[in-house]
């Protein structure tokens, strides 16, 4: 059983084609990926696998996950591959790879708001201690570079004068609210990264993803796009627990992974980069698009109040990145518009129908 689909594979191959020049730096190297079964990092692995099919020598990957928040099935396609090794480890604990590592992608985290509110201490632990362990590994092993997956949540709810939001905006974030365990621990992770860079010259780069979505994301994730895709897939009414007027800049995963790899393989170090899409759209409009994806007829949309008391607490009203800094690194633009990205995402889940895909099944476990 696997959750890899032809659409995920197409996206990976497109990224490799677009980054054929920069990705040559990966030949003959070893990469460590934490949170490997999570949404973003599993796409990193798919992309490296596509790269390795034409690269000689390819890039060896050590994929690390404790599977507390991710699905083992998402990485079942790795079994039997010589270029990838999967290890069940907890990234919040010290980790010895047992061999030199050239690149680190630290993506282990708990990113779903309903889940990190349920597991706040675990969220802080992996974001802070996990980052410290990876930075120590980078420093002591003399690696070529580390990519720290931070979050656009570090900006909090920006004032209108700072939207689109550039990397030098310092944020408007609550340190005591129900989201603080995630927002503030991501901010501290960035502080650690910059401290290691200043003290030791560590070649660490920070990326701040803005609302990335696409195939392979758990439909019980609790965030808006998986919720909408789940409703479209099952032909159920769409329920919004808000008035739908808040805006986001949803970025299809292929565009995001390409931007992240561009940052990792660049000469930049000790810097943060926004990664996302600057197409700002309201939650209500995205819901209307999703309502028509698997019809006709279109799905009804209901506006209700969540039973979860903190559901909208500290929820940003607008989120849109300034992408000028990333665009200066190379020929990169977000290409996939929301309507196309949602359609590709739904088709990917439809392709797994009947294969026992647990990404459709509700779960009591936290998810990554």
Q: What report would you give on this structure?
A:
It is a single chain. With 368 residues, the chain is of the alpha/beta class. The chain has a domain at 6-210 and 253-278 and 321-338: NAD(P)-binding Rossmann-like Domain (Rossmann fold, 3-Layer(aba) Sandwich), CATH 3.40.50.720. The chain is 34% helix and 14% strand. The strands form 4 sheets. The chain has a 7-stranded parallel β-sheet with strand order 3-2-1-4-5-6-11, with helices on both faces.
Key features?
7-stranded parallel beta sheet, disordered C terminus, Rossmann fold, globular, two-stranded parallel sheet
SSE blueprint and pairings:
Elements: H1 6-18, E1 30-34, H2 39-52, E2 60-65, E3 84-88, E4 103-106, H3 113-118, H4 120-141, E5 145-149, H5 180-200, E6 204-209, E7 212-213, H6 224-234, E8 238-240, E9 247-248, E10 251-252, H7 253-264, E11 271-275, E12 281-282, H8 283-291, E13 301-303, H9 324-327, H10 338-351
Parallel strand pairs: 1-2, 1-4, 2-3, 4-5, 5-6, 6-11, 7-10, 8-13
Antiparallel strand pairs: 9-12
Query: Which descriptor suits the 3D outline?
Result: globular
Q: Uncertain spans, ≥5 residues at pLDDT below 50?
A: 354-368
Query: What is the CATH C level class of the domain at 6-210 and 253-278 and 321-338, in words?
Result: Alpha Beta
Mean pLDDT: 91
Largest sheet: 7 strands, parallel
Full CATH superfamily name of the domain at 6-210 and 253-278 and 321-338: NAD(P)-binding Rossmann-like Domain
CATH architect. name of the domain at 6-210 and 253-278 and 321-338: 3-Layer(aba) Sandwich
Coarse structural class = alpha/beta
Strand order of the largest sheet: 3-2-1-4-5-6-11
Q: Strand fraction band?
A: 5-15%
The helix-strand sequence is: HEHEEEHHEHEEHEEEHEEHEHH
Q: Give Rg in angstroms.
A: 19 Å
Beta strands, count: 13
């Amino acid at each position: 059983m696997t959750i890899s689909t032809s659409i995920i594979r197409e996206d990976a191959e497109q990224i490799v084609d677009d980054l054929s020049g920069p990705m040559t730096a990966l030949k003959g190297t070893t990469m460590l990926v934490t949170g490997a079964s999570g949404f973003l990092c599993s796409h990193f692995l798919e992309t490296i696998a596509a790269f390795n099919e034409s690269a000689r020598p390819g890039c060896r990957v050590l994929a690390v996950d404790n599977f507390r928040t991710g699905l083992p099935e998402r990485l079942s396609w790795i079994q039997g591959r010589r270029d990838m090794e999967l290890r069940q480890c907890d990234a919040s604990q010290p980790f010895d790879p047992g061999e030199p590592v050239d690149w680190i992608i630290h993506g282990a985290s708990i990113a779903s708001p309903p889940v990190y509110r349920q597991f706040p201490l675990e969220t802080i632990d992996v974001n802070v201690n996990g980052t410290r362990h990876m930075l120590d590994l980078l420093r002591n092993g003399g690696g070529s570079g580390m990519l720290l997956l931070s979050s656009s949540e570090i900006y909090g709810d920006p004032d209108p004068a700072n939207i689109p939001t550039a990397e030098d905006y310092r944020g408007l974030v609550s340190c005591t609210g129900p989201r603080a365990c995630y927002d503030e621990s991501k901010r501290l992770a960035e502080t650690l990264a910059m401290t290691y860079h200043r003290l030791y010259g560590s070649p660490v780069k920070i990326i701040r993803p803005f609302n990335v979505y696409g195939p392979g994301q758990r439909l019980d994730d609790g965030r808006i796009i998986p919720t909408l895709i789940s409703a479209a897939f099952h032909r159920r009414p769409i329920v919004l627990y808000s008035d739908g007027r808040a805006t986001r800049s949803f970025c299809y995963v292929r565009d995001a992974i390409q931007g992240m790899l561009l940052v990792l393989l660049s000469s930049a170090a000790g810097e943060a980069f926004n990664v996302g899409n600057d197409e700002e759209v309201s939650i209500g409009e995205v819901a209307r698009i999703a309502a028509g994806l698997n019809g006709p007829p279109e799905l009804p949309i209901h506006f209700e109040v969540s039973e979860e008391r903190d559901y909208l607490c500290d929820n940003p009203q607008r989120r849109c990145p300034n992408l000028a800094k990333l665009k200066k690194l190379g020929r990169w633009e977000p290409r996939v518009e929301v309507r196309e990205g949602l359609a590709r995402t739904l088709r990917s889940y439809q392709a797994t129908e009947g294969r026992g895909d647990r990404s459709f099944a509700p779960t009591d476990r936290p998810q990554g």
